Amino acid sequence: xxxxxxxxxxxxxxxxxxxxxxxxxxxxxxxxxxxxxxxxxxxxxxxxxxxxxxxxxxxxxxxxxxxxxxxxxxxxxxxxxxxxxxxxxxxxxxxxxxxxxxxxxxxxxxxxxxxxxxxxxxxxxxxxxxxxxxxxxxxxxxxxxxxxxxxxxxxxxxxxxxxxxxxxxxxxxxxxxxxxxxxxxxxxxxxxxxxxxxxxxxxxxxxxxxxxxxxxxxxxxxxxxxxxxxxxxxxxxxxxxxxxxxxxxxxxxxxxxxxxxxxxxxxxxxxxxxxxxxxxxxxxxxxxxxxxxxxxxxxxxxxxxxxxxxxxxxxxxxxxxxxxxxxxxxxxxxxxxxxxxxxxxxxxxxx
Length: 351
Known about the structure:
This protein is an alpha/beta fold. It folds into 2 domains: 4-66, no CATH class; 72-348, TIM Barrel (Alpha-Beta Barrel), CATH 3.20.20.20. 36% of the residues lie in helices and 19% in strands. The chain has helices at residues 56-66, 107-119, 141-158, 169-178, 195-202, 227-245, 264-272, 292-296, 307-319, 330-348; strands at 4-11, 23-24, 31-39, 42-47, 72-74, 77-79, 85-91, 124-128, 162-165, 182-185, 206-209, 252-255, 285-286, 324-327. The chain has an 8-stranded parallel sheet with strand order 12-11-10-9-8-7-14-13. Strands 1, 2, 3 and 4 form a 4-stranded antiparallel sheet that branches. The chain has a two-stranded antiparallel ribbon with strand order 5-6. It is globular. It starts with a strand and ends with a helix. The mean pLDDT is 94.
C-alpha cells in the first residue's frame, strides 16, 4: 500500500490560529489541522504544517486535497463547487428499487418530477433508464434510449441540468445530443468499450464510480484488507487513465460506490473515510440515499422508511467536504443542508 492522506482534526474557523496551522479542504467550507497518514507500516497523525516532510507523494496529495475545485459549466449553468450540491435521482425504470417504477412509461410526468427537484433546490437531475440494483435485468440499448430521451429533451428545454446515468455508449451519445450535460457511469467507463471515446469526443464532465466488477454489473463481493485505500487506489488509477485519454481532471467527479460490492462494514468505513478521496483531486459524489446499509442498522427498515438515515448520510458527506450528494429526497436534503450551511457560516465567522 502506498501512502495515503486523510484530513482529520477539523476546526470551526481559521480565525485566530497561526498561519499554516490549518488548511481549507478543496476550496470548500471545511478547515482541518492534520492528516491521518496511512502506509504499509501503519497509521499516524501528522500536522498539516509537517506534511512536506513526508516526501513527494504526500506533497502531491496535499496539493490536490487543498486545491479549490473549478466550477462545472453545464450549458448556461455554472455549478460552483465550494459547498455541497444536491443531485436529484430520477428513475424511469419499471424495476427501480426506490420508487417501484413510478415514472416508467410517462415522460411528461418524469420530466415534471425532475423540474420539481430543481425547483426544490437540486443543482442537477441524475436520470437513469436501467436499474443497477443487484439482480436487475440488463436493458437493451434501444429500450433504454426510448425511456430516457423524451425526458432529457423536456428537462433540457426547461433549463434543468441533467446527468445521464448509464453504462452504454449509445445511450450516452443520444442523451448528450438531446441536451444532457454530464455522464454518470457506475462502471467508470469500463462496461462499454466505446464509452470513453464518447466522453472524450463530447468534452463533457463524467462521474466515475468505483466498481469491483464493472463488466459484470458492480455487485461482486471481494474481500478488502483496507476498503478505503483500495477503493482510492482503484479510482486514482482509473482517473489517471481517463486523463491520459483526454478528459481534463477538472471535468471528472469521483464516486466511491457505496453499496456496490461492499459489505455493511465496508460501506461504513468508506463513509467515515470520505475526506480521503479529496486526494484524487476531483469533486466527490456520495450516493448513499435509501441504500441497504440504512435498513441494516434500523431493523430492516424498508426503502420508503429510510429518509432519516439518508439525510444523516448526506450531512456526514457535507462534513467531509463532499461536493455532490446524490439523493432521492431532494426537499428534505436541501433543507438539512441549509441548516448545515447556516451553522458553518456562523462557525467560520468565529461564533
